[in-house]
Amino acid sequence: MITSTDTHEPRVDVEPTPNESCDVAILGAGPYGLAAASELRTANGLRIVGFGEPMSFWATQMPRGMLLRSPYVASDIGDPHGDLALAEYERSIGVDAKKPVPLDHFVEYGRWVQQAVLPDLRTERVRSISRNNGSGFKLRLAEGSQVHAARVIVAAGISDFAYRPPLFDNVSKVSHAADHDDLGVFEGANVLVMGAGQSALESAALLSEHGATVEVAARAEGVRWLSRRWHHNLGPISYMLYAPPEVGPAGISWMVALPGLFRRFPRRTQDWMTTRALRPAGAGWLPARVGDVTFSIGVEAVEAHETNGHVSVTFDDGSVRDVDHVLLGTGYRVDVSRYPFLAPDLVEELETVNGYPKLGRGFESNVAGLHFLGAPSAWSYGPLMRFVAGTGFASSELARSLAGHVRGKG
């Protein structure tokens, strides 16, 4: 049973024990999993269990010193007006708002939310999720126990989707940006960063600040910076052009910020808006930090191999770079079949488009009772689902959908 109070005391009265049953299992304790737990805690009668290390991806697969690209107003986990908003956390610890939001501050905020909504979060690894004889799902845990869940909310993040170009498959001195929580290990090294998005550009800034010699190489014809210009300072007019999360250009920003509306557009229009909203770009506060970084734009790597302890990378313009290390800021490509915990027969049953599950009301897949939140839901609900700002809509939409099932139980 879940109760709602006005404090941040634990809300869950009873948690399932191994080999027991629950109504909802939430897999993942990052922003989307925590937002879902926050909304569902008020659904009396639902037994919920959460699995995961709180904020693990943010804490272990993002570099120290990083700042969130999302604006402060788009960095709340769940309802931005609720008792677990970022501003409420800052008030509770007696600090002023931090803008842009530092990574370590955001991680501690997420852990504060976790203590409020999933105090009995289980950190055991879920080895597999499979059908349970046609009724709900069976979760096998690493230590051998099982939990039966009527519904499963997959909010497992993007760690399994890190994209590594095949060109570098046989190169040992290459890593993805998600492989590091401390770029200081490259002090004094000559590092080639691949990509022109936020991950690549901020990694380049941090590497340079740690004493590395850094070059950024990208296929893009130029680097886009999300700087605030004159049309961002027109008061109410600017608000009409740009939604608070600021995902996408003028006009499109509002379509993206309203996933319920986004879903009503024809698929072709959705794809066009997604492309416009997710073009590689760096935060407006980054240019001042990459003054010592060399940029090679409009080039594509065509060959890579190791020679005498160095990496030699050849580009399509004939130029060659010999470096100590290659850092891939090449982003993430969603493919839910790469989630290691989804049983093969469950993956086979899922209806997907280019790796994304096709989701209906309540973020539910065609497999009844199996829901996906976060980046995997972006094909169905739009690019906002790739950002923390999407947690508010996703969690409330999920709760509305499940509310009918709760009433049905009564």
Question: Explain this structure to me?
Answer:
The chain is an alpha/beta fold. The chain is built from 12 helices and 18 strands. The chain folds into 3 domains: about 220 residues, FAD/NAD(P)-binding domain, CATH 3.50.50; about 110 residues, FAD/NAD(P)-binding domain (3-Layer(bba) Sandwich); about 55 residues, no CATH class. The chain is globular. The two termini are about 15 Å apart.
Number of helices: 12
Number of strands: 18
Instruction: Return the CATH class of the largest domain.
Output: Alpha Beta
CATH superfamily of the largest domain: FAD/NAD(P)-binding domain
Q: What does the main sheet amount to? A: 6 strands, mixed
Order of helices and strands: EHEHHHEEEEEHEEHHHHEEEEEEHEEEHH
Rg is 22 Å
Low-confidence stretches: 1-18
Q: What would CATH call the architecture of the largest domain?
A: 3-Layer(bba) Sandwich
In CATH terms, what is the fold-level topology of the largest domain? FAD/NAD(P)-binding domain
What is the approximate shape?
Answer: globular
Termini, distance in Å? 13 Å
> Mean pLDDT score, rounded?
91
Number of self-contained structural domains = 3
**Structural category:** alpha/beta
Q: How much strand? A: 15-25%
Give the fraction of residues assigned to helices.
25-40%
